[in-house]
């Protein structure tokens, strides 16, 4: 009986010891093992890296080429039955951009300085004296785009283009004064004062826009192209004043010459088959182009009376004064007369 109990105790102890040894070996070699000391895990790691590289090469495969028909079918656009769009949302965005441009141009006389540098630059003819700008008006209205439709390109088969009608009714004016110099047979033989004012009253036409992918142009970037159809309409108002004592006002030949030069300038640049190109920036999200909206830190009416503490400068700033200053600046902006209101249409130009 004692021999049976002793053999049972030996088996039980041996079994428990073997379980403990197996648990210790599992913890040591499978949980706390160092892969740098074992050559076998190196081979497995290298195999895993190779498989990962293979997977990356298969993921970054080139997509199948997209045709015009494929793009139209994926966007559910039928060029034959789709109704033209009004582009009301686009008109609002363009109006905001033009309003900001006009505001920036009026700041510190920026547009006046820029125009003076351009018209009095090195390309100015020798028979013209210094050109003085007497009148500038950037207008008050905005262009209206409408009737937008997608059509296949007539110049490049397989391409798509967007055509939209544009209409602008405004008064955009540039007035200058100068003198015509006659330098033959000797310098300054005669001097003829000239005053000109050119106003754009109406412009309407059809604008064509298309994209050129980076694989198809030399700039290696997506390019936006735009042009005008040859049936555009441009209405101008040209006022002229020639002479010092006996003045000739609104000479028809001068008006015809200026109108023909403006039409030729447009035809040589943007009228089909000529077009303009704009290289588009990369639209891929980047860290350096990331911005964040600053939350409004304005408080309630109680803090306006007590004042607010501004972090970083260790000073107290009165919220009431800040509010009064902003209100005063807004009121001054509202009372400022628009540029068109201050523009005077002179019947004659003063002699220089």
TrEMBL record:
Read off the CDD domains from this record.
SMP_Mmm1
Membrane topology of this protein = Single-pass type I membrane protein
| InterPro entries per the UniProt record, alphabetical | Mmm1, MMM1_dom, SMP_LBD
Q: Where is the composition biased (Basic and acidic residues)?
A: 303-314
Q: Which residues form the SMP-LTD domain?
A: 83-281
Kindly report every residue range on the membrane side named Cytoplasmic: 33-352
- Coarsely, its chief localization is endoplasmic reticulum
**Residue ranges with Polar residues bias:** 316-332
What are the entry keywords? Endoplasmic reticulum, Lipid transport, Lipid-binding, Membrane, Transmembrane, Transmembrane helix, Transport
Q: Transmembrane segments in this chain: where?
A: 12-32
User: Which residue stretches does the UniProt record annotate as biased composition, category Basic residues?
Assistant: 42-58
Q: Which GO terms describe its cellular component?
A: endoplasmic reticulum membrane; ERMES complex
UniProt record, GO biological process:
aminophospholipid transport; mitochondrial outer membrane translocase complex assembly; mitochondrion-endoplasmic reticulum membrane tethering; protein insertion into mitochondrial outer membrane
Could you tell me where this protein is found in the cell?
Endoplasmic reticulum membrane
- Renumbered to this chain, region (Disordered) spans 37-59, 289-352
List the stretches on the Lumenal face of the membrane: 1-11
Q: Which GO terms describe its molecular function?
A: lipid binding; lipid transfer activity
Subunit note: Homodimer. Component of the ER-mitochondria encounter structure (ERMES) or MDM complex, composed of MMM1, MDM10, MDM12 and MDM34. A MMM1 homodimer associates with one molecule of MDM12 on each side in a pairwise head-to-tail manner, and the SMP-LTD domains of MMM1 and MDM12 generate a continuous hydrophobic tunnel for phospholipid trafficking.
List the PANTHER family hit by this protein, alphabetically: SMP-LTD DOMAIN-CONTAINING PROTEIN (PTHR13466:SF0), TEX2 PROTEIN-RELATED (PTHR13466)
The UniProt entry's sequence similarity note says: Belongs to the MMM1 family.
The record's function comment reads: Component of the ERMES/MDM complex, which serves as a molecular tether to connect the endoplasmic reticulum (ER) and mitochondria. Components of this complex are involved in the control of mitochondrial shape and protein biogenesis, and function in nonvesicular lipid trafficking between the ER and mitochondria. The MDM12-MMM1 subcomplex functions in the major beta-barrel assembly pathway that is responsible for biogenesis of all outer membrane beta-barrel proteins, and acts in a late step after the SAM complex.
Q: What is this protein called?
A: Maintenance of mitochondrial morphology protein 1
Q: Which organism is it from?
A: Dactylellina haptotyla (strain CBS 200.50)
């Amino acid at each position: 009986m004692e021999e049976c109990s002793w053999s049972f105790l030996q088996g039980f102890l041996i079994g428990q010891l073997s379980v403990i040894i197996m648990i210790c070996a599992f913890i040591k070699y499978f949980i706390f093992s160092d892969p740098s000391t074992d050559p076998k895990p190196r081979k497995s790691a290298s195999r895993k890296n190779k498989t990962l590289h293979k997977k990356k090469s298969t993921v970054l495969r080139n997509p199948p080429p997209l045709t015009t028909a494929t793009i139209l079918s994926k966007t559910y656009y039928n060029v034959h039955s789709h109704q033209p769009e009004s582009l009301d949302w686009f008109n609002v965005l363009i109006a905001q951009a033009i309003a900001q441009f006009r505001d920036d141009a009026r700041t510190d006389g920026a547009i006046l300085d820029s125009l003076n540098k351009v018209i009095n630059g090195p390309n100015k003819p020798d028979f013209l004296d210094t050109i003085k700008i007497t009148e500038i008006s950037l207008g008050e209205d905005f262009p209206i785009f409408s009737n937008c439709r997608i059509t296949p390109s007539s110049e490049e088969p397989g391409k798509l283009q967007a055509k939209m009608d544009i209409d602008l009714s405004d008064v955009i004016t540039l007035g200058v004064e100068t003198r015509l110099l006659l330098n033959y047979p000797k310098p300054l033989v005669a001097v003829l004062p000239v005053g000109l004012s050119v106003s754009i009253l109406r412009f309407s036409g059809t604008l064509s826009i298309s994209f050129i992918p980076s694989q198809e142009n030399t700039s290696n970037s997506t390019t936006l192209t735009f042009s005008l159809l040859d049936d555009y309409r441009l209405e101008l108002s040209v006022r002229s004043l020639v002479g010092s004592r006996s003045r000739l006002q609104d000479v028809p030949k001068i008006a015809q010459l200026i109108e023909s030069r403006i039409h030729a300038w447009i035809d040589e640049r943007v009228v089909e088959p000529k077009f303009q190109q704009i290289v588009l920036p990369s639209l891929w999200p980047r860290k350096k182009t990331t911005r964040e909206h600053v939350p409004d830190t304005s408080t309630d009416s109680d803090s306006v009376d007590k004042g607010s503490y501004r972090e970083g400068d260790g000073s107290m700033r009165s919220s009431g004064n800040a509010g009064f200053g902003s209100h005063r600046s807004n009121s001054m902006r509202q009372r400022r007369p628009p540029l068109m209101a201050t523009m005077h249409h002179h019947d004659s130009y003063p002699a220089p």
